[in-house]
Amino acid sequence: MLTPQRVQESLVHTHHLHPAAGEHGDWPDWADADLVAAYRRRGVEQPWRHQVTAAEASWAGRHVVLATATGSGKSMAAWLPAISSIRSAQLGTSIAALQRRPSVLYLSPTKALAADQLHGLQALLTAGEITDVRVATCDGDTPTDERTWIRDHADVVLSNPDFLHFSLLPGHRRWQRLLRGLRYVVVDECHAYRGVLGAHVALVLRRLLRLAEHYGAAPVAILASATTGEPEVSAARLLGVDPTTVTAVGQSSAPRGHTTVALWQPAILPGAEEQVWAQESTGGPPAWRPSGTPEDAPRRSALAETSELLTDLVRAGKRTLAFVRSRVGAEAIADQTRSRLADRDSAELAGRVAAYRGGYLPEERRELERALRTGDLLALSSTNALELGVDISGLDAVLIAGWPGTRVSLWQQIGRAGRAGADGLAVLVASDNPLDTYLVHHPEAIFETGVEATAFDPGNPYVLAPHLCAAAAETPLLQADIERFGPGTPALLRDLVARGFLRDRPNGWYWNYSRPESPTDLTDLRGGSGAPVQVVEAGTGRVLGTVDAGRADATVHTGAIYVHQGRTFRVESYEDDVAVVTERSVGYRTRPHVDKHVSVVRTGTEMAWGPVTWGYGVVDVTEQVTGYDRRRIPGMDLIGTYSLELPTHTLRTTACWWHADPGVLAEAGVAPGDLPGALHAAEHAAIGLLGLIATCDRWDIGGLSTAVHADTLEPTVFVYDGYPGGAGFAQRGYSAAARWMVATRDAIAACPCATGCPSCVQSPKCGNNNSPLDKAGALLLLTMLTAFAPRS
């Protein structure tokens, strides 16, 4: 399938996951007989040992986290006690049993996963001829009349944390039947809840458990997770309980086939050898090469390489899933793969390749999931929405376009290859950035390092405050609730009362109903900054999809090109949360210009490295989209630049920064005229390497560098969290600054390019088109910086 030359040029390392035999357990005595029969009719004669261990613990009333590999059958560990509980209660004849018919609430991070679980659960109940257990999904897409039926009749409700926050919890009186009988809360793929999203979900779960207790229920939580570090600690933090009350099951007893994991670095493009690259860069900083198909970049982009590999796999008849970080990337890989298949006399296969991403309409997502499940689609290019446990059996291979951000995500994606015990292939295709380059050449950092613990902070005041408001509106907050919401609660309650959000009364804290806003509208779990922008086709009025409000200015501004399943549309107007588009066949793409400023609001802590000062604290980041480029495809050559008038947006967050006297930098060999490029290059490389220190990637964080900053009055580099209130990433960078800066310095020094490239100091998300950049100056700066770093 691959020529020896391609393998020699690009294959950096091969790792083998050897097959393992399974170990069965016995069906528990309490398991419902019809449910056991249903599993057997679906080919499961006996459960695996880890499934029994988890199910027994939850049946005994303990919270459980099952943290095992993809495809190890975590769902059975939840449904076995949950459905058995519902059916056993139906045998009771007491009034109390009838009034408190057990109910189950299932929560997933994506609608796709909930829909898939519904499909599997309905098939299971049908196999067991179980007609007295009613299951349904209920989320933001569910029509009002269906919601009414679900509230009145459903025994198992499959939903997501967003629906709980915006609908179920504020409307809890309408959901009394569910909450009063709530026996189990199933939290699927709980490792996905990290950073700010994790903090939000932890507080939503606290609100849920608080209301369940209000109605007299004491639900048991069953959490399903990928293999993570300290799963019981993360699960306890998510629930707001003591870790000793959580049983962790972390060893899978399910069988697995042989999986080959390849670390793949795209080859240097013809005509782009180092000498040519250096010559083209002479006389100024290299122009920005976006991550698409730049003809003069040192290496082929991860997207183009993944598309080429996907084409080969499709032509070989291999069912393949390609993962990519961005929505634009998902569209690009699918589009390029279809084009390559058509060019190679395989046009009949082009129709069996599609993209899958957020922003599609619900019915389109459901159809793609069905087609992949049934085999109508042979290959799918997806964002991480399909990383999670959607049942996609029979995959031969997985392609991963760029480091997915965490080892947890990497192993989840690798686990998609060869499910159900079959052999599989997984290929990590390195993007041209410092972190990816480092990892493929240091495989021990992947295969010999434990997976990350899930990091999130429910005590983040920017996250906690709006949830306290929402909880007070649901039922007044009492003194007993303070321990549930954490030690920062008393101070926040005083602040919320002073600001008029809450009212302090002798019998608790109440939401101030005279305020114009709803308490649930004070925050968005996914970090959005408003209602999604609808993309509407001119003439027909058809809604093509949606774009998050936070990225709309940059992606659907007037004149932008919007891509949907290979079709290109131009945005004709963008106002009032609607982007009106017309389909156009154009030979260019658009790239926004973003102006950004950072100001220090409050310095929390400082440390001195000789003449260098490090700081950590609260900052305001202001951004504005001021214009955009049109760039010809392929090659991304600049066609023209256009101005825009869009509003400024301010993000208050946390950051770490360092600054030094210009004289010290001059002594290190960095002339004043070279400072902007040297600082900018050091900032880019540091952002690219922070993923080694914190559970993040460059898309979670931002940065800014300046030769003179208004607050420090010195050359300064900032790295900040890209979420309101912070997410802990910058704090971890500050705490491990020496290790972080040494890794950054070493990554730049090890890169063979002459003046800077995407593998060391260029960034695919730079708002200044990667200009100016000075690789040599950055190395001098970082060498000076690390010389003063404290020795551990």
From TrEMBL:
InterPro entries: DEAD/DEAH_box_helicase_dom, Helicase_ATP-bd, Helicase_C-like, Helicase_put_actinobac, HRQ1_WHD, MZB, P-loop_NTPase. Residues 55-246 form the Helicase ATP-binding domain. Residues 279-301 are annotated as: Disordered. PROSITE patterns: HELICASE_ATP_BIND_1, HELICASE_CTER. This is DEAD/DEAH box helicase. Keywords: ATP-binding, Helicase, Hydrolase, Nucleotide-binding. One of its GO terms (molecular function) is 3'-5' DNA helicase activity. NCBIfam families: DECH_helic (TIGR03817). It comes from Candidatus Ruania gallistercoris. Residues 309-462 form the Helicase C-terminal domain. GO terms for biological process: interstrand cross-link repair; nucleotide-excision repair. It holds the Pfam family DEAD.
